[in-house]
Amino acid sequence: MDTSKHTVISTQEMPIVTIPNAANLASALDFFSAVRDLGEPVVHTFNGAMETYVINDPEMIRQIFVTKQGHFIKGRGLQEIRPLVGNGVLTSEKTEHKTQRAMMQPHFNMAHIGTYTDKMVEMTLQTMDHWQEGEVRDTTDDMMEITMDIITHTMFGTSVKEFIEEIRESMHVALTKFSARVREPHKLTAADEASMRQAVVTLNTVIAKIIEDRRQHPQEGSRDLLSILLRTGMSDEELRDQVMTIFLAGHETTANTLAWTWYLLSQHPEVEQKLWHELDTVLGGRPATYEDYNKLTYTHLIIQESMRLYPAAWVVGRTVDEDVQIGNYQFSKGQNVSMSQWAMHRNPAYYDRPDAFLPERFDGDLLKRIPSYAYFPFGGGPRVCIGNNFALLEAALVLATVGQRYKLVLEDADQLEPEPLITLRPKNLRMRVVKR
């Protein structure tokens, strides 16, 4: 990108850089990388159809997430997907969000989610039972199936396997079209809008089935999240919004993290060998248990590094709700700010060889040496991802369970590409299943 023609505007004695041709960049990921490389803490851009201020300074990100988070609401991206997820814990604001989060948080602490370990392993093994030696599979789809099974069994006490193809197609349509609505709404056709509405209808049908199934078959004393929500007396709409939020956010992001991890392992046999050694040493061929979780130290390093290079949440947006000063900048109500994990996690100011896959970089005090928001795969502050502990436990157990049995070999490497939708998906990730 040619940055020689940018315009500098003085704001409180610090420059804001405007990139007139930002919308012409081929990829949203390239856009945020190029903006970062300008070396400015704040860059004023027109990213597609939206004017936004891209924040490249970790301390300013910390203020937006933590100390001055009350001045912001969720950004346009999440506001646009309300027709899909409703007004659940992901999109609700202010007092309503605090109330929802307080109600749901106990179901996501480690003591509680640790009880799901056996179910996570069981669901992974069941999916693998259908794999055949030597076949080439879509690894992203496989990881989606595993994490979908896990979230529905652990949180809702049911299964949606009979709807798997409908869900998969509707999810892709919804995420693709809603992402387009945020970036290039002028390009959406009537057919696009119709397919988006149909995708939401299909997913609503699945969610209604999950809720009705539990109503028809209540389990006395059950501790799954849906049983608790049903006992609160929520309206059908409120139930739908919370269940849809947990269902979508609870499987999509972790599935993407796992898919990217398999890709990275396939390209780095030395890391793969270290993973196998740890799995063989710690597990000895038996299924993983909760007691093994903290012993799988190298497995955790791999996941941390995978989330650095390919963060499922690759950009976070906020809209200013009350005028606020962040650092040396004054932001006004209605302005948009964007913070990209993709760009920050690959910033050479904080990471040696930032584009290299080096799990060992996290084996030490790296996270104490770099600014706290130079690495934020789960966001931060009061709105940090409520399921972060669930996701880390799940990713480690799935990686360990599959890795004990199979090596996944990348096919058609030239077809693979990142797909930055609402989450960062690997597109065309075809891998051959090979028994270890």
Mean pLDDT: 90
Unreliable stretches, pLDDT < 50, 5 or more residues? Answer: 1-10
Order of the strands making up the biggest sheet: 1-2-3-4-10-7-5
Classified by CATH, the class is Mainly Alpha
State the CATH superfamily name: Cytochrome P450
Q: CATH topology, what is it called?
A: Cytochrome p450
Helix content, binned percent: 40-55%
CATH architecture: Orthogonal Bundle
Q: Give the strand content.
A: 5-15%
Q: How many helical stretches?
A: 17
Domains, number: 1
Rg, rounded, reads 22 Å
Question: Any overview of this molecule?
Answer:
With 436 residues, this protein is α+β, with helices and mostly antiparallel strands. It has one domain: Cytochrome p450. Helices cover 49% and strands 15% of the residues. The protein has 17 helices and 14 strands. It has helices at 28-37, 58-67, 76-80, 82-85, 94-104, 110-113, 117-128, 139-156, 164-183, 190-216, 225-231, 236-267, 269-283, 297-309, 341-345, 366-369, 388-405; strands at residues 7-11, 14-19, 42-47, 50-55, 72-74, 136-138, 316-320, 324-326, 329-331, 336-339, 406-411, 417-420, 424-427, 430-435. The strands form four sheets. It has a seven-stranded mixed sheet. α7 (117-128) runs antiparallel to α8, α9 packs across α10 (190-216) and α13 (269-283) packs antiparallel against α14. The radius of gyration is 22 Å and the shape is globular. The termini are far apart. Mean pLDDT is 90; it is low at 1-10. Keywords: Heme, Iron, Metal-binding, Monooxygenase, Oxidoreductase. It comes from Tumebacillus lacus.
Short description:
With 436 residues, the chain is α+β, with helices and mostly antiparallel strands.
